[in-house]
């Protein structure tokens, strides 16, 4: 029994599975849950579905703690995927029925849209007459691009990831984590380029999914109006709200809207409706903070599964919460300033370069001073060293050999 429990504390105790078997073990519980929830509730009672969902939900949640592929990038993807699959099916099977009194049921179409909605717009019948559509009509999108347009964008972002990863992997994990304390200027450069590499990495995923959908389901052509970029240069954010609402990836938006956002907003409003006048606004704020908490939970979960619970609880526990809840409070502060301070400022100042500069400095500084808390656990784990894209590293080594002054800007993880 103790040996079995030791497996499910994560880290080095996990069972290493072959490359092809690993994804099968990961997805089987989720496929079974999907099959369960799409059965019409009049043919299969919700109570029975809920009972059957319990071991499957536990399997989805615990699998990254018990099994590994041995590749840290794949383990990262597996942890993130299973965390969000757990949240989505937990909402469908338990939270939605308890909070909104609905049956345990979802259509295959709704699950399909949940998965692709972060990238693709699925048109719905118009609720009322508009300039372009009459009530009940569905917008028709014109296909104006081919699959090779996706390939060009994908190649650009893969090159971006390769160059930055090749530089970042010259640092050891200890060197990375020490820069926060010992070399703040270098840490700022790491913070800046980490934003660029995340932009490239997520957009590479987005364009890969887009290419797959275009080739398999759309015959090789698509409407550019119907598809969106997953990330929009987060380093260019003018405010924290702009960063998280617009520029950061919306990969899990449908999941986090379903849970925790909607249930938390509903429960908060029910609690406050008869007690305060602005229950709706408070409900929105609390629900928004809950989304940041869900994101913090996802990052804590990945670190815990891959570092192991003993190391995680002793060294890294709570760091992701500091980062994400801190950013949630930062966004809340911006809204307070927008409501209380902004109306008292002149339009000339709000449109001025000075105002723009203040916003940019605030956003960049807040990101810089909180970045360590999201950065530390992942760098200590060393997932970056399993990146498949480091083809540029020989060129970086040669550049440093040619210009020795650049030695201070690379780590000791390469022999120069």
What is this entry, summarized?
With 416 residues, this protein is mainly α. It is built from 16 helices and 4 strands.
Write up this protein.
With 416 residues, this protein is an all-alpha fold. It folds into three domains: 115 residues, no CATH class; 96 residues; 144 residues, no CATH class. It is 67% helix and 2% strand. It has 16 helices and four strands. The strands form two sheets. The protein has a two-stranded parallel ribbon with strand order 1-2. α7 packs across α8, α7 runs antiparallel to α15 and α11 packs parallel to α15. The mean pLDDT is 92.
Count of helical regions: 16
User: β content, as a range?
Assistant: under 5%
Shape: globular
Assembly state: single chain
Structural class: mainly alpha
Contiguous uncertain segments of 5+ residues: none
- First-residue to last-residue Cα separation: 50 Å
Spatial strand order of the main sheet: 1-2
Mean pLDDT: 92
* Count of the domains: 3
- The run of helices and strands is HEHHEHHEHHHEHHHHHHHH
Family: Belongs to the wax synthase family.
Membrane topology: Multi-pass membrane protein
Main location: membrane
Organism: Mucor saturninus
């Amino acid at each position: 029994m103790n040996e079995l429990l030791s497996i499910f504390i994560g880290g080095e105790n996990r069972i290493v599975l072959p490359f092809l078997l690993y994804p099968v073990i990961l997805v089987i519980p989720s496929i079974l849950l999907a099959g369960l929830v799409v059965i019409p509730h009049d043919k299969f009672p919700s109570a029975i579905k809920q009972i059957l969902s319990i071991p499957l939900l536990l399997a989805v949640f615990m699998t990254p703690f018990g099994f590994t592929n041995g590749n840290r990038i794949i383990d990262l993807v597996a942890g993130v995927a299973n965390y969000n699959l757990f949240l989505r099916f937990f909402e469908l099977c338990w939270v939605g029925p308890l909070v909104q009194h609905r049956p345990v049921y979802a259509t295959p179409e709704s699950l399909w849209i949940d998965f692709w909605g972060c990238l693709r717009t699925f048109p719905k019948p118009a609720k009322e007459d508009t300039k372009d559509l009459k009530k009940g009509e569905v917008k028709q999108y014109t296909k104006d691009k081919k699959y090779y347009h996706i390939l060009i964008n994908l190649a650009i972002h893969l090159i971006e990831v390769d160059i930055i990863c090749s530089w970042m992997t010259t640092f050891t994990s200890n060197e990375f984590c020490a820069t926060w304390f010992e070399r703040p200027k270098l840490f700022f450069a790491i913070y800046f380029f980490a934003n660029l590499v995340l932009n490239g990495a997520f957009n590479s995923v987005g364009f890969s999914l887009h290419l797959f959908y275009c080739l398999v389901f759309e015959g090789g052509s698509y409407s550019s109006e119907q598809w969106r970029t997953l990330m929009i240069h987060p380093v260019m954010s003018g405010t924290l709200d702009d960063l998280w609402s617009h520029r950061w990836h919306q990969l899990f938006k449908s999941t986090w809207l379903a849970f925790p956002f909607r249930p938390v907003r509903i429960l908060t409003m029910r609690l406050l409706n008869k007690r305060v006048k602005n229950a709706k606004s408070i409900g929105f704020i609390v629900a928004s903070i809950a989304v940041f908490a869900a994101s913090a939970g996802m990052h804590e979960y990945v670190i815990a599964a891959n570092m192991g619970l003993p190391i995680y609880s002793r060294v890294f526990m709570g760091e992701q919460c500091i980062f994400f809840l801190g950013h949630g409070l930062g966004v809340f502060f911006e809204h307070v300033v927008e409501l209380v301070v902004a109306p008292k400022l002149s339009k000339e100042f709000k449109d001025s370069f000075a105002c723009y500069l203040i916003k940019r400095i605030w956003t960049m500084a807040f990101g810089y001073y909180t970045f360590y808390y999201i950065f530390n656990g992942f760098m200590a784990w060393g997932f970056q060293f399993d990146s498949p894209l480091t083809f540029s590293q020989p060129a970086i080594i040669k550049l440093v050999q040619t210009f020795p002054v650049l030695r201070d800007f690379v780590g000791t993880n390469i022999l120069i």
